[in-house]
Structures are given as structure tokens and as C-alpha cells.
Amino acid sequence: MKIDSLIEEAVDMCMWKGIPFVFFALPGEEDFKFYAARPREDGSSPAFRDDDSDCFYINFFDNDEPYTAGVPFDMDAAGAIEYANTISCGATVAEIHPRVTPTFRASYHEAFSRVVSRLKKDGGKTVLSRIRSIFSIKTIFEIANEYFSVTSSTFRYLCFTHETGLWLGSTPELLLESDKSENVVRTMALAGTRGADESGEWDSKNLSEHGIVAAYIATLLANHGLDVTTGDLGELRFINIVHLCTPIEAKGLVDVKDLLALLSPTPAVAGYPPEIAKEEIGLYETHRRHCYGGYVGVRINGDYLAFVNLRCAFMERASFSGSQGLLVNLYVGGGIMADSTEECEWQETEAKSATLAAILLGDNSVTGVEGQTLLNPETVSFLHT
């Protein structure tokens, strides 16, 4: 994959001048599209419009913000460059910033221990996430080129809004696809993970975890008055890992925006029962998820294509030890069950983050640094003009 030079210029100018933009490609497509939108007078991003206009949208985990940030398809690359030349640099900066420090193993151990102790008594599932904090001197274009080139079967995007900051992701998990001409919505249960080099029968922990997610989604859709059809259990590969996957289709009249809010977050990224799992996430995770585990997607011709925001990173231009680059929070998680083991779950998060981390770090003596090297927040400063 190679980013067109005009789009590269547009992305660069939008990043420096705080203009909401998105650069994305649909699963299986090599054709990347770029759009930008004018900020409001107060510098905020245009909210997700209630009409059927074409747009990109990105939501926070657990819908914990009053609206969904959006980028209407108002300007192409040439239009964005022309507009950017009319405004001053640094007109808008993000409301939130990446963390300098990562999730420590001791913090993960404490969270894991408390969650497993409760699960052994009550059953269910809780998804624990962690962040890897990486400073990389690669450009955003180098990162996107490398990452998107090896993940062509996913929804790939790079976006900025005032409320969310700069996010990059390549997500394989469909949250909802609508077809208003046939009154059909499609989704999937994606839960249960192992290495792509593993074979044979799946273990009971992963099968049980997947079953919880599939049953929850099918029941939610049925309770919404839809006629639900659940497909056969299969597998979906993402580079070096494989997930259990069950396709689900539902037919009937539905408000898709309401259904998105009901589905997100699914037990695949939160847990089950949902309210207990989300309470534990708030209590024990030492970071805010922001848009990780929320959803991203596009609305085109009135139909929605939404994906769970996985295999993603939150980033911002920064300087560290005299070098300029990107401070990146790489988000990754895993479903904890009563029979989970901490080392296996930690290694699962390592595997899920391996590809993007390797791209960010490269030869880490030159390209990037991670972990305890970044412990002192005063060693990192964000770049604004």
C-alpha cells in the first residue's frame, strides 16, 4: 500500500491544524478514501449527524460520551489542503492525550487476581485490557503503510477529531452492517483466541468464552423484535492469531443507531454480565479506554458499516530526549474466565499487539522506545504550534 502524495499532504496539514479528518479502506479493498470536515466555531468536531449523509464515526467505550464524534464527507484531499491554508496552525488540539506510562505487570496482576476471584464464585467473563506506551520516530505515513499492508481483510482507518484525538486501527470485528433495502442487519460473535500456529480442538475456556458472546448478541437482537439466524462456528485469522467466529444475521425493522448503542460494548470487549464486567473494568484498569472497545465505521447511502475498535492505537505528536515523533498508546485486551491463567492471558495480549508494536519500534535502538524508559512524564512533551 502506498499513500497518495496529495492525501499525505492533506493528512499532515489536518494533523497540524486540528482539522477533523479520516483516511480509511473497507475490508478487502485497496482503495483508501480521505475526507475532512470544517471544525465548528469553538474548534470542536462536527457531531455525528442525525440525517443519512455519508460520514465516518468513532465512539467511546461504553458510549460514555453524550454523542458520537464524526467526520462528514465534506472535503476531499484537495479541498482540505485549500481550507487548511486559510487557518492558523494549532487552531485546535485534542481534549485527551496518550499516557506516558504503560500498564505495569503488577497492576495487571492485581486486576487479574481480583477478577478471577470473583469469577470463581459467580461465573461469567470480564475483559481486562492494558496499554503499551511506545515512542516512535516513524512518521504516521510509514506506520500506516506498514500496518495496513499486512491487514487488508480488515477495516483500516486513521482519524482525528477534537474529542478523540488521533487514532489508527485495523479491526477485524464487525459490530453491525445494515442493508435497509432488505431490512437486514449482520454482525458476528468474535471471541476466543489462540496462535495461528496452533491446531487441533479448541479448549473449553475459549469455547465457553465464545458461547457467552454469541448467545448474548443473538438474544439481544431477538429481544429487539428481530428474526435471528445464527451461522456455523468458524475461525477468523488476524495475522499471527486466530479467533473463534460465528456470523449472525437478523431481519426486521430497526433503528440502526439505537441498535449500535445497544450492542456496544458486546461481551467480547467488556464481559458478561455486562454491568458487572464494566464495573470491574472501571475499578481495576489503571487507564481509560477512550475509544478502544468502542466502535468505528462509515455510513454510506444511508447504510451503516460499524466495527469494534480493536487492534488500535491512540497517538499524538511528541518529543522525547531531543527526538520528534509519536507517543503511542497501543490498546489490547483479553477475556478473563474463572479458569483463566494470568500468564496465558498476558501472553495473549502480547500476541495481539505484536504486529503493530514491531512496526512502531522497528530497531528499537533507533526507531522507538517502550515501557520503563518513558516512566517520567516530564521526559515527553506534546508538539503543538
Your description of this structure?
- It is a single chain.
- The chain is an alpha+beta fold and 385 residues long.
- It has a single domain, classed as Anthranilate synthase (4-Layer Sandwich), CATH 3.60.120.10.
- The protein is built from eight helices and 19 strands.
- The strands form two sheets. Strands 1, 2, 5, 6, 7, 13, 16, 17, 18 and 19 form a ten-stranded antiparallel beta sheet that branches.
- A hairpin with a 2-residue loop joins strand 16 and strand 17.
- Helix 1 runs parallel beside helix 2.
- The longest helix is centred in the middle third of the chain and has 20 residues.
- The model has no long low-confidence stretch (mean pLDDT 92).
Short note summarizing the structure:
With 385 residues, the protein is α+β, with helices and mostly antiparallel strands.
Question: Which features does this protein show?
Answer:
alpha+beta, globular, 28% helix, 385 residues, Anthranilate synthase, 8 helices
The number of helices is 8
Please mark out the parts with pLDDT under 50 across 5 or more consecutive residues, or reply none.
Answer: none
Shape: globular
Structural class: alpha+beta
The largest sheet, given as strand count, sense and whether it forms a barrel, is: 10 strands, antiparallel
Cα-to-Cα separation, first versus last residue: 30 Å
Number of domains: 1
- What is the H/E order? HEEEEHHEHEEEEHEEEHEHEEEEHEE
Q: How many strands appear in the DSSP assignment?
A: 19
Strand content: 25-35%
Q: Give the name of the CATH superfamily.
A: Anthranilate synthase
Q: What is the CATH-assigned architecture?
A: 4-Layer Sandwich
CATH fold field value: Anthranilate synthase
Helix content: 25-40%
Q: Mean pLDDT, rounded to whole units? A: 92
Query: Which CATH C-level class is it?
Result: Alpha Beta
- CA-atom Rg in angstroms: 20 Å
